[in-house]
Amino acid sequence: MSETTRSTSRRAFLEEIGAGAVALAAAAAAAEKPPTVPGEQPKGAPVGPPGLGDRKLRMGIVGYGVCQFGAAMGFQHHPNVEVVAVSDLVPERCKGLAAVCRCEKTYPSLEELVKDPKIEAVYVATDAPSHARHVVECMTHGKHVMSAVPAATNLDDCRAIKEAKEKNGLKYMMAETSYFHGPVIQARNIHRMKRRLLYTEGHYYHHNVTRLGSWKNWRRALPPMYYPTHSTAYYVGVSRGRLTKVSCLGWRGEGEEWQANDWNNNPFVCESALFRTSEETMCRVNVFWWGAAGGESGDWIWEKQPPANVSSSADIPKGLPRGGHGGSHGPLAHEFVSAVLTGREPAVDVYEALAMTAPGIVAHASALKGGVQLDVPSFDKA
Predict the structure, then answer these.
(1) Is residue 335 part of a domain?
(2) Among 118, 152, 177, which residue terminates a domain?
(3) What pLDDT is attached to residue 212?
(4) Which of 92, 289, 292, 376 is 20 to 30 A from 345, alpha carbon to alpha carbon?
(5) Does residue 256 share a domain with residue 189?
(6) If DSSP states are collapsed to H, E and C, what string results for the chain?
(7) CATH number, position 87
């Protein structure tokens, strides 16, 4: 064989090997890529299609409050939203909400706002004990709803929300901020790659939050596990699994606030729960109102090493601020708008919302019983 022939054969052989290596790398990359879920982008969290055209979702916003939360999601900045009207029970706050949302029409109450035939959807940012009642009121009047967290503060209200959604067929979404935190988006994409999740932790630490001003003082001595979704989202919002059993312990608060209050004299200022999951794994959830700071956080233990360079971001339209709570407000608003305008169910739909909310309600019952393990009822579609 001539030198030229040997050189040509060697080159062809190396090119063949190189092509094979490229093909194997491509196959490996494809295997590592999170699968596309209907209504979701493989890159990150569900945010709907990139373009929604010129269609405007006509929205009402209810509740400004001491935290000005009604305007915090940024619906007034979304290119596919027209804020038609706003409402707050306090006239001065109602005017403030209208000014921020660049809206002229106001109503004295949610009950009056939902009668407006121009409004297609309502963002309910009212007091937590009223969320379920307000959601049902909105749906009864044919409005899609995004509700602030938690979805409800008792199991009867969980059932009422589910029944209203299934009866009316409208879109419901809970504005759980942890769902769009970067680490949660990343963990969700890892879980889609069929990585087995062995253990989850979710924490919500907010020192002295029970003494913040609130409508009818509803935050005073609020049972920590009645506000669980910032923590439970670290499991449910990643795996779409369910928390099925719980044992919870509480730490008693000091002072009159924890001796007599409107929450059946709730004594606990901090609660820590250990859940069994539908994947037969464990999930620990802490909600503390005293002694700890840091907001929302969590962690995951996987059966094998998670892949590197997994997306932890969600796309939003130009001009829509990402906002607070770890840049989650903008993605939440866009997810709701996208879902309604395209006719799909939103990411944190009624079943996911109740799967994040109900476990905390049962966990508090466990704490009152000294930590006895209790079953968490399912609110999934039959």
Answers:
(1) no
(2) 177
(3) 86
(4) 376
(5) yes
(6) CCHHHHHHHHHHHHHHHHHHHHHHHHHHHHHHCCCCCCCCCCCCCCCCCCCCCCCCEEEEEECCCCCCHHHHCCHHHCCCEEEEEEECCCHHHHHHHHHHCCCCEEECCHHHHCCCCCCCEEEECCCHHHHHHHHHHHHHCCCEEEECCCCCCCHHHHHHHHHHHHHHCCCEEECCHHHHCHHHHHHHHHHHCCCCEEEEEEEEECCCHHHCCCHHHCCCCCCHHHCCHHHHHHHHHHHCCCEEEEEEEEEECCCHHHCCCCCCCCCEEEEEEEEEECCCCEEEEEEECCCCCCEEEEEEEECCCCCCCCCCCCCCCCCCCCCHHHHCHHHHHHHHHHHHHHCCCCCCCHHHHHHHHHHHHHHHHHHHCCCCCEECCCCCCC
(7) 3.40.50.720
